[in-house]
Every structure is written in structure tokens, then in C-alpha cells.
Amino acid sequence: MRVDVTNISNAAIMNLEQNMDVKQQLHLSAQQWGWAIACFYYPCNSIIPFASGYHSDATTDMFLEPISTILLKKTSAPVWLSRIMVTWGIVTCCIAATTSYGGLITARVLVGALEAGYFPCIYFWTFWYTPAELAIRVAALYSMSSLSGFIGGFLAYAISFANGVLSGWQWLFILEGIPPIVMCIITFFILPSYPEKSNWLSAEETDLILRHLHKDPPTIHGKTFDWNAARLLSTDPTFYSFTAAWICAGVGGNGIGFSLPTVIKDLGFTDSRMANVLTMPPSFASFALVLILGRLVQKGKLKPFPVCIILDLIIIACYVVLLCVDTVGVQYFVLVVSTAASGSLYPMLWPKRVQALRGTAMAGLGIGLLNASAQFSGILGPQVFSPAYGPSYAISYKVSITLLVGAVVFHSLAWFFMHGPIQKHSPRLAQRVQAQTQLRKSDLEEKKHIDYVV
């Protein structure tokens, strides 16, 4: 669970009435607080090509998500994921010692840089599972992220009563930084490596797993990076449709999540402690919905692309209600619904994105770059939902609606490229998509345009 991501949103309003909240103690403006949240995502997201020959002081943080995906293969999942957990836990604890805006920014950037690679661990799963089998597993991964918001809200409420020599927000970072340090030890000894390197599998079992995988899957012996794979990825239309959809849905749908405790408090019917408690129902609703939809998609009862488009439309409808209705109870209910819907968007499409990537190098680079694009939600979301736009957040909702309309368009394009009737209307484009992905010709035919299990 990623309480290190959600805890800063909870810390924003802890002990606000006692003038012991982090923003007052560090003398932060609304704009500075927005940057304190967003800076976590910059190390994960920078998009200047690391092989272009360009260098600057910032290039140490460039492309950390894709690079982390590559290093995951070069080392092993137990080693790399344990490294992520122990380092982000240590630096999260250190945030409690910050006394200035600069110190907070530095610590948050370090946590973001050290944690880069947590979600690209989906790449590791592609060595074990087919895209169809990834659905429920990706849903479980994202549901844990949602559950972290639920647990974080409860912990923020409880820890706020520990306000004393150390402020409540300082205790929050210390206590939430310890679990990943402990879990890294368990992960190192329990998490299996790749099928070819797992000593607990017999040769026959390893061969069965490898033969079970989809066409041209990633393998431990495949190239970690290949310029030809990068070129093919850059000419793949699904790369651009998925990336644009990821950004629009991320900022438009998930952006509110980075300021949810503040938005709830600004509804005006609760104090800071209860505002953190009231972040729990939206997080739990997201947790439950992700698991339910993931299971239904895996069983073939729902199709990922239509589900995502419907979720986009639900979030748009929720934001329209928030713009037009002033009743506090209705606004809170709509926030619960929109948070649940937005938290379900990414996990529904991850298996489809994996299906559209062919080979070891292309899968590693594609997954890393797509996850890097997802970080725009963390970079721009806190700016869109800045406290400066509260308490109504009318501008925030209007910007989000515009982005979600774009998400509908790009989700539809990705659906068309992968399963639409392009074999009939654009044979050359269909041939290119088929050559660069794991799709078969039958998947591109009109009669198969909503099939999921291939």
C-alpha cells in the first residue's frame, strides 16, 4: 500500500484548529503546498530522452520510471522491489524532521525518485502471466493503493491526538514510514524471481509457464533495451492513444484525490479530524469497485474499453453535479462516486496495454513510459485542485471535465486501434498494429471488436 503517497494530503489538515498543521508550521502558501504535493511525481515523469546526448543537473532524475523498469529486469524483483521499499520508508520518516519549504521539497523529491518503479513492477508480472490473467492482479495492486487512502485517513485521525512535543503530522510520517522498511525484509526472502531463475520450479514447470504465455512475451534472455524496439514503439498508434488517455484520465479523474481531505473540509460541515475520517468511504469505495470490475473483466463479463468510457462519463456527470448542486450531503456522495470511478480507470486498461506491447525491450520501455505519463496526475492534479480555487473548486471541475472529454476520445481511439474494424477500413494500419503488438489478425476484425480474452 502506498501511504507514502496519500499521507501528505492527510497531513495538510491535521491539527489545523490548533495551528499545528504542517502548512502553518513550515509557513507554506497555497501555491507552495501544491508544489510540495506535485514534486513527488517529477522524478518519476521527466520525458527528456536519456540517450539524446542532452545533459543537465536535472538529468539524474530523468526517465526514472522507464529506467527502473529496465533495472528491475537487470537485477531481480526481490532485490529491486526491496530496495524501493526500504529507501522510501527511510526518507518518509525523515520528512518529519523538515523545518522549511526547501527541506520538504527535497524530501518529497527523494521519496518520488526512490519509489519510482513501484507500478512498473507490472512488467515483472508479464514474465509470469498472460494479459488476460493480469486483469485481477493489476486490479488487486491498484485496490491496495486505494486501500492506503482508507487506512491513511483513519491513521491521520488517530495520530492527530498525539499532537505534543512532535506535531501530529510529524508522527504521521514517522509511523507510516516504518512498515515499508519492515516489509522489505519479507519481500526479499519471499517474492519469487523470474520463472527461469526460480529454483522451486522444476524444468517441466518452468517450460509449462513459458509456453503458456502470450505471443512473443518478455523473457529474461531478451534484450533489456533495443533501439529498434524504441523505434517501433514510437510508430505504434496505440502508444499515443494510450498515453493521451492515461494523461487526460489521470489529471481529470484522479487529480482531485491529491487534495481530497482539503476538498472535503472545504465543504464546510466538519473539522479537520473528521475530514480525514471522511476520506475513508471514497477510498474504500474505490478499493471495492476496482476488485469487482477487475474480477468481472477477467471472467469476460465486462469489456475493458467500454468500462473505461462509462467510468469517464460517470466522473463527468459527478463533476457537473458538484458544479450545480450546493447541498453538502449530495456533494459528498458525488465525491465518493467520482473517487471510486476514477480509481478504477487505470487498472482496467493495464492488461490491454501489455497486450499491445511485443517483446522484452518493447514491453519494458512501453510500460515504463506509460507509467511515467500517469505521473502527470500527480504533477498537475494538485495545481488543478489548489486550495486557491476553493471552497467551490468551480475552475477545477471545469478543467477536469474538459480533460475527461479528451479521455473518452482517446479511450475510444485505443479501442478502435486494438479491436475496431480497422482490418476492413485501414488494412495498412491494421498490419502495422499487428506487427508491433501481440494481437492476431482476428482480433482486428470487426466481429472481434470488443473481445477481451484472446
UniProtKB/TrEMBL annotation:
It is a multi-pass membrane protein. The chain crosses the membrane at residues 80-99, 105-127, 139-159, 171-191, 239-260, 280-297, 304-323, 329-349, 361-385, 397-418. Its main location: membrane. Keywords: Membrane, Transmembrane, Transmembrane helix, Transport. GO terms for cellular component: membrane. Gene3D superfamilies: MFS general substrate transporter like domains. InterPro entries: MFS (IPR011701), MFS_trans_sf (IPR036259). It comes from the Eukaryota. GO terms for molecular function: transmembrane transporter activity. It holds the Pfam family MFS_1. It is found in: Membrane. This is MFS general substrate transporter. It comes from Mycena metata.
